[in-house]
């Protein structure tokens, strides 16, 4: 079984190489992404393993089929970058890792929240230069505030528990509410409009679909409290980035902590510190003192990497053995 790994980093190579000692697959790690220009390099490979910013559209899938690829293995939970209809028509199966470490992502969201509300980045930069002035660093207690969760899957539930641990009241929005969880956790489901109106902290944990794209937009942010903050560790396109800049400029929201960005594929996972950034929206977001951006690292823990490698290689083994694919995306 020959596997072409795309968009791999050092941590991918370490975790998958160690896990592959058991499976003994022929793995070819590539630093570049899968897209229309690189799809033809998969000739002779049975499986491609891709990440969140690889392009797996209809054109790419046609090339994969022509090259003899039989399986697309996502080493992530999201699959919005894959044309599932084209894959089905080509007879190529698609599998994913639905839950590699929900704690990693939720905990990173909490870290963004605390860093944002207590001005940790600014304080760190000051004290590194022996500046111990605390003017302008006034934060606020999270205890007693309202935390809103959009998307109450595993990660959303864990984030809700973390916020509840701070003493926050938890409200949630999900088109498919989990009433049992809500009853057990003390959370209350509200309408989409109400979660924007009531939340002091709004954390996004829903998948990216046609219905959720730009769920945070000009209109919904105008509903929010002027000191409310948004945390996004889900998908970048859940937020209309241009509308976000407008909301920050005009004080419609209090700030945002984000680990994902709508147009991140060009920039994230790469060093642009010595280059000119041509994305005016991202460049503008980086200038706001009440914005914290991390480069899609919420998943990056040793626990998550181990689980990603194990589940991905298990998915491939089940496919090879003709077993039921429990993590298949159709």
UniProtKB/TrEMBL annotation:
Pfam families: 2-Hacid_dh, 2-Hacid_dh_C
Key word NAD present: yes
Domain D-isomer specific 2-hydroxyacid dehydrogenase catalytic: 5-330
Gene Ontology terms, MF aspect: D-lactate dehydrogenase (NAD+) activity; NAD binding
Positions of the D-isomer specific 2-hydroxyacid dehydrogenase NAD-binding domain: 111-298
Protein origin, superkingdom: Bacteria
InterPro entries documented for this protein: D-isomer_2_OHA_DH_cat_dom, D-isomer_DH_CS, D-isomer_DH_NAD-bd, D-LDH-like, NAD(P)-bd_dom_sf
Keywords: NAD, Oxidoreductase
The keyword Ubl conjugation appears for this protein: no
PANTHER family for this protein: 2-HYDROXYACID DEHYDROGENASE HOMOLOG 1-RELATED (PTHR43026:SF1)
Family stated for the protein in its record: Belongs to the D-isomer specific 2-hydroxyacid dehydrogenase family.
Protein name: D-lactate dehydrogenase
Originating organism: Treponema bryantii
